Design the sequence.
């Protein structure tokens, strides 16, 4: 691990952020001169921020799965299908290659296979 001095030599524009640390069983606090040998970084603030962000993700995509404190996976298929259907109804999208509305409904109701020609399967912008 680099020291602060080595890090600044490699990256002079580096901005260091002071974070709360703790020692032993003491609660996290902002210490004037923490030492890497005696102080451990507190992740409490990071975890709180992560929780707020994950809550926002969950509000937007009910299929969100949390993988770790800072990682999540989404299945946005249904949201995208609805957006495509809405855009199609509003005339923002049109079908390519002479496809009809029945075929559009079928495309939106079933997942597009990974090995399909996506350019041919999806509607195109008007």
Sequence:
């Amino acid at each position: 691990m680099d020291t602060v001095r080595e890090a600044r030599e490699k990256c002079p524009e580096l901005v260091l952020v002071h974070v709360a640390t703790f020692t032993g069983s003491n609660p996290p606090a902002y210490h004037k001169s923490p030492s890497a040998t005696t102080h451990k970084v507190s992740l409490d603030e990071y975890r709180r921020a992560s929780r707020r962000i994950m809550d926002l993700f969950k509000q937007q995509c009910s299929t969100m799965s949390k993988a770790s404190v800072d990682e999540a996976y989404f299945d946005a298929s249904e949201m995208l299908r609805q957006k495509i259907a809405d855009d199609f109804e509003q005339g923002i999208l049109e079908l390519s290659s002479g496809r009809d509305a029945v075929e559009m409904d079928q495309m939106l109701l079933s997942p597009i296979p990974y090995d399909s020609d996506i350019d041919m399967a999806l509607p195109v912008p008007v």
Remarks:
- The chain is about 40% helix and 10% strand.
- The radius of gyration is 25 Å.
- The mean pLDDT is 79.
- The first helix runs from residue 4 to 10.
